[in-house]
Amino acid sequence: MSHGMLDIAFFQGEYVPFSEANISIGTHCVQYGTGAFAGIRGYLDRSGESVNIFRLPDHARRLMNSARLLRAELPYTPDDVVTIISGLAERNNHVGDVYIRPFVYKPAVQLTPRLRGIGDELAVYMLPLGDYLKLDRGQTAIISSWFRIPDNAIPSRGKLSGAYVNSAMAKDEAEEKGADEAIMLNTDGKIAEGSACNLFIVRDGVLITPPFSSDILEGITRRSVLKMAEDAGIPTEIREVDRTELYLADEAFFCGTGVQIAWIGTVDGRPIGRGTVGPITKQIQEIFFAAVRGESDQYAEWLTRIPLKVPAGA
Ligand code: PMP
Fold it and tell me: Ligand 1 centre and the CA of 218: distance in Å?
């Protein structure tokens, strides 16, 4: 995927043209992956009058937690990050769905792979982004031969730049085998997650997802799905999931900022359930999309609304 960026970025404490937000090839983060990032979606409100940023304070908090794992020292609180990102979305004033990418990185030109005492920066850019998966068709998935990184090797609960080599290995393998997405097991052989998404299964009407201790990212969409399910009276369980349980699931879906709620049609060539979107997946999808488009009072607090400036005479 390559995208045209929106004009304005946040860089070194200021809003600047995206083309001027550049770093050195010697940057510590570029060499060693010592960065942390977030991926956040903004949805055009059904009224067309605002862009609704989904769970911005939660993303800001997870970003700063990921940064803490890297011992980042920054002058910003999560609230400051919310203000910076809201300001950026206002300035870009894009009338459409957007993807926002804030990241914390070690900008030093420094040869030692260490975390402490070498300084950190925050930058943010954004781009237009609609659905990048066809949500009406089932995803084909394989169990990857690549294990999900154990938390004791690279913290898996944080969104750390260097760790995404793990995701890329698994994604390439899936695509080269003709599948859409990889499902990674952890080093204990339990289901962890997709290359850039968490995973749910449904068995006998219960919505099940692996725990953080299965080496998964602390996903914000995952947390939202659990809440929506509880509110809708769907029983949920957070527990370890075996590979063969996935084969026997009635329904399965990926969730994440990028994939949103994407149902899984097959795993390792085996159809999941009837091979069509299941009723619980469909219900969660409907609640989710109503929430992000601003149609649901129940989840209004999940949205940071950025009013759009409409040109005079429009
Ligand atoms: N796991 C990984 C490895 C991811 O990169 C993502 C995307 N951020 C997710 C899960 C889903 O997390 P979220 O719902 O917070 O986007």
Answer: 7
